[in-house]
Model the fold of this input.
Amino acid sequence: SYLKTRGNMAEQITKDILRTTILIRRPVAIFSLNRNIRVTTRYLQPIGDIELTGCLHAERVLRLPACVDGVPVQMIAPHAFERLPNVEEIILPGTILSVGAFAFYGCRSLRKITMSDMIDGWGFGAIRFCDEMSELVIRMRRNRLTVLRDLLGDVDYAFRVILEYDDHTEGYYFPRYTRGFDEDTFARAIH
Done:
């Protein structure tokens, strides 16, 4: 179903009775991907791609769409999904090329993110203060670990990384990182 609106986008979303609402940049239009997800969109000009800009009332698993109205979703805006209290898992489609700064910031229940290695840009602080984050799954299509490098530079807690290749799967564990330490000079003194 396709519903065009001329009113305030925030009003339309507030009136939405469905539990999951994903906001996407495009001329103001609201349509349903299925019974449980309503979407508002805006096209990015002049590129013609779609950028996800937010979500209201997300459920435990948030599966983001690969395309909207036949146009690929390639970007997640800065702060798009920050502080979603109930989301435990986020599944990014293989079409995503860029994740904005603080995109998932403060999602305290977030435990797992599934994505592809097609992501070239991982924004600063994208998963900062996601205290329960413990697993990252990367579907390997180009055999590039750029997104993993960027993500590891941004977190200091322990988590498991699973790399899914076409013919096999690899698992890695990254322990908690501590920036500071206590120096015990007396323990190093020679007597």
